[in-house]
Amino acid sequence: MTTKTHPRKERTLVIVKPDGVQRSLVGEIISRYERVGLKLVAMKMLVPTKEMVEQHYTLDPEWRRITGEKRIKNARDKGQKPPSEDPLEITAAILVHLKNYMTSGPVVAMVWEGAHAVSIVRKITGGTEPLSTDVGTIRGDYVLDSYTMSDTDGRAIRNLVHATGTPAESEKEIKHWFSENELTNYTIVQEKILYDVNLDGIFE
Ligand code: ADP
Ligand code: MG
């Protein structure tokens, strides 16, 4: 296996959403990803435009269908009626709300690198709905929103963080938010302990 394709080189995009910045959780969120062993390779604060947000969420042509279906399944699992039977109708409304949400204040965009970065970051971040996601995740521990509340109030779910869903999407998402010269290739000393095949540099 070449260094380029080694799993430790996987990268993923994280965005602390406007509510995360307002809740003063940027440091806490960063430390969740840091403490597992991931390496920060880019970071910046910005106020996104609505165009950037729409493009970001539609980089994956399947996102509209998958996100609409996820909402329908969540309602079914709870014995509730979904807002519509048409996944695309649901997502059309979500996208309008998301554009308002994501442009309502500054966000902090970051790129994290390390073994299986995409799935590790998703695991630490938790599922879309804070109410039903696990305790111990960022979305489970620091916020209490639900589909019931976001539907009632006609807005996007506030869940503090965006994290890329799949390795195939991460490359596109990183390119969407960062230029190549904003990504820094460097080593942190703990990578030796995380990844060295023979831990032979410990004894004096
Ligand atoms: P995730 O961020 O967990 O990958 P999605 O990609 O499905 O979730 O959706 C993107 C974002 O849109 C979510 O993080 C959330 O802020 C918002 N969102 C998704 N589904 C809904 C919904 N049914 N109602 C309100 N907001 C939603
Ligand atoms: Mg997603």
Average of per-residue pLDDT values: 95
Which series of helices and strands comes N to C?
A: EHHEHHHEHHHEHH
* CA gyration radius, whole angstroms: 18 Å
CATH class: Alpha Beta
CATH architecture: 2-Layer Sandwich
Largest sheet: 4 strands, antiparallel
Descriptive notes:
Helix 3 (50-57) runs antiparallel to helix 5 (87-102). The chain is 45% helix and 12% strand. It is globular and about 65 Å long. It has a 4-stranded antiparallel sheet. The two termini are 31 Å apart. The protein contains 10 helices and 4 strands. The protein has 204 residues and is an alpha+beta fold. It has a single domain, classed as Alpha-Beta Plaits (2-Layer Sandwich). The longest helix has 16 residues, at 87-102. The protein has helices at residues 18-22, 26-35, 50-57, 63-77, 87-102, 117-125, 138-141, 147-153, 167-177, 190-195, and strands spanning 11-16, 39-46, 107-113, 161-163. Adenosine-5'-diphosphate is lined by residues 67, 70-71, 94, 98, 128, 147, 150, 156-157, 159, 162, 165.
Short description:
With 204 residues, the chain is of the alpha+beta class.
Relevant terms:
four-stranded antiparallel sheet, 204 residues, binds magnesium ion, alpha+beta, 10 helices, Alpha-Beta Plaits
Write the layout of secondary structure elements.
Layout: E1 11-16, H1 18-22, H2 26-35, E2 39-46, H3 50-57, H4 63-77, H5 87-102, E3 107-113, H6 117-125, H7 138-141, H8 147-153, E4 161-163, H9 167-177, H10 190-195
Antiparallel strand pairs: 1-3, 1-4, 2-3
Helix pairs in contact: 3-5, 4-5
Adenosine-5'-diphosphate (ADP) binds at residues 67, 70-71, 94, 98, 128, 147, 150, 156-157, 159, 162, 165.
